[in-house]
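testing teh design pipeline on a random one, pls ignore if ur not involved
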């Protein structure tokens, strides 16, 4: 089954939608997955840390029934990092940012470096092909397998009207 095209939120440019997609893929990928995919990718340039990596908490919000009033559901540990690559054309700097679930500082830093490298038009095609697309396919496959597993245990309830 072909993967549906990602929908672009209203008021965003195609570049913004593409960046949102690769940042989501990087945030869901584990450190081991990122390192494994980088073996097939061109080498990443050196970077400078601007912030972090640092770990903190974010508040998760929920909605009753998906559309009710918002409420504070729980807190979640996240790690964030911001980096700068300065080897772009004419000394142009690319800033990369990442937020990942959990406390893995190396994962957050590597995701931020990849985000910055993907902002460079010269590097983007190779990194998309070697890192982002394979990770996105693997994540979609895992989500589909989880959905099939959940559907297999779904109970179909029905009611019969009694005749009087």
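output:
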């Amino acid at each position: 089954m072909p993967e549906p095209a990602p929908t672009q939120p209203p008021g965003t440019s195609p570049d913004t939608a593409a960046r949102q997609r690769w940042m989501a893929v990087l945030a869901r990928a584990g450190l081991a997955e990122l390192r494994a995919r980088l073996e097939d990718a061109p080498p990443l340039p050196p970077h400078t840390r601007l912030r972090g990596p640092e770990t903190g908490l974010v508040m998760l919000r929920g909605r009753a029934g998906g559309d009710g009033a918002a409420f504070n559901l729980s807190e979640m540990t996240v790690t964030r990092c911001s980096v700068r690559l300065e080897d772009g054309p004419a000394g142009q700097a690319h800033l990369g940012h990442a937020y990942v679930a959990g406390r893995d500082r190396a994962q957050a830093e590597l995701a931020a470096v990849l985000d910055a490298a993907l902002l460079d038009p010269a590097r983007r095609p190779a990194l998309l092909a070697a890192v982002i697309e394979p990770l996105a396919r693997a994540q979609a496959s895992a989500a589909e397998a989880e959905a099939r597993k959940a559907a297999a245990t779904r109970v179909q309830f029905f009611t019969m009207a009694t005749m009087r």
